[in-house]
Amino acid sequence: GCKLLDSFAIFIQICLGAVAFSTLIIKRQREQPQRPLLIWGLDISKQLMGGAVVHALNVIASYFTGGNHEGQHSNPCVWYFLNILVDTTIGIGVVWAFIKIVHIIATRYRLSGLQSGVYGGPPFRKQVKRWGKQMVVYVCALLTMKIFVVLLFQLFPSIAVFGKWMLGWTMGNHKLQVVFVMLIFPLTMNTMQFWILDTIVK
């Protein structure tokens, strides 16, 4: 059936990553005022690393989510589709809330370097140190989001019925299913997510 880790699926994933993140370059060209290249690079690197973490977790979750009560294997494409759908909708709110809470705590207790997108002036080593703190916060926000999503799936396993219904037109053609759930659908949803998260983290 559907495979998310064979050579074809990996090629599709590389295409997705390249196209989705390239849209952030377009977003920078449209910014007013435009961030300095260094600041933009530090901001984008958070999304690059965070995106890699979430993608890996989505693939893993797609194989292990959704019970196996009747001894039947669930379709990982269905669960990957559902992961992307929830990540790029409800998940954005979870990430925003986490970063907002950290910002409030940092302001209240005067913790330096945690205000997202603020790296201070030279030297570069000091800027990287602040970026590192913010990177940890961002990854923790993403991990919190994924825990929330997985718990949601555990509480409502019947959501798989919705996923199967949405992908019904691809059943029987596994390559088409992989292209849709790992390229076409994520490209649309992740582009929107990247633009919104870039606004949050900058």
From TrEMBL:
Transmembrane stretches, start-end: 6-26, 47-66, 78-99, 135-156, 176-197
Domain of life: Eukaryota
GO cellular component terms, semicolon-separated: membrane
Pfam families named in the record: STIMATE
Key words, A-Z: Membrane, Transmembrane, Transmembrane helix
Name of the protein described by the UniProt record: Vaculolar membrane protein-domain-containing protein
Organism from which the protein derives: Phycomyces blakesleeanus (strain ATCC 8743b / DSM 1359 / FGSC 10004 / NBRC 33097 / NRRL 1555)
